Known about the structure:
This protein has 213 residues and is an all-alpha fold. The chain has one domain (34-208): Cytochrome c oxidase, subunit III, four-helix bundle (Four Helix Bundle (Hemerythrin (Met), subunit A), Up-down Bundle), CATH 1.20.120.80. It has five helices and no strands. It has helices at 33-62, 74-99, 103-130, 139-170, 180-205. The chain is elongated, with a radius of gyration of 20 Å. The N and C termini lie far apart (44 Å).
Amino acid sequence: MATALRDDGMRDDGRASGDPRQLDTPTTSERPPGWWGMVGLIMTEASLFTFLLFSYYYLGSLSPQWPPVARPELTLSGPNTMILLASSGTMWWGEAGIRRGSRGRLISGLVLTFILGAVFLSIQMIEYHKTKFLPQSHAYGSVFYTITGFHGAHVAIGLLMVLFVLARALCGHFTPARHLAIKNAAMYWHFVDIVWLFVFITIYITPRFWWHQ
């Protein structure tokens, strides 16, 4: 992960950024190691989330009533989903800014992304406080807290990434030709947001149509 957030003196096409003989050469399809590292991390994490979501459906198929408690409310989770999706928009907006040479737009996008992500986690904590069951209450409670908590941990990691690249952006480390760390942080953040859509549909939407009631 540390490698993915460093540029290592490389342009985004994998060539040395300081080589004047290559600065005007058309870009190639080569990818730097940091990009592949982030792709590998995302694929690994995606497989873990797939296993967790499969566990949810498997346990539900064995239960005469699923969930065994009241269906999760959308009062908090619905708006919270919109907040997290909005953070993907601000991340994209900031990344597009540095591609156009706008350092101010990049910084603004990262700040907005961090704020929205922090609000998402705060609302998640409020929802936990209002939930009337614990992880040890039953199988549903265990899988509910495991899936949402695991995702929340990934949001927290994403916020640390955003803070790291924000600090570098404030120091003027990124240019239109060299911003691999921004690309990788954005890739991870979008992944976390996409995963939440699957979590949201699984945890909050499917219980309204579950066949074992």
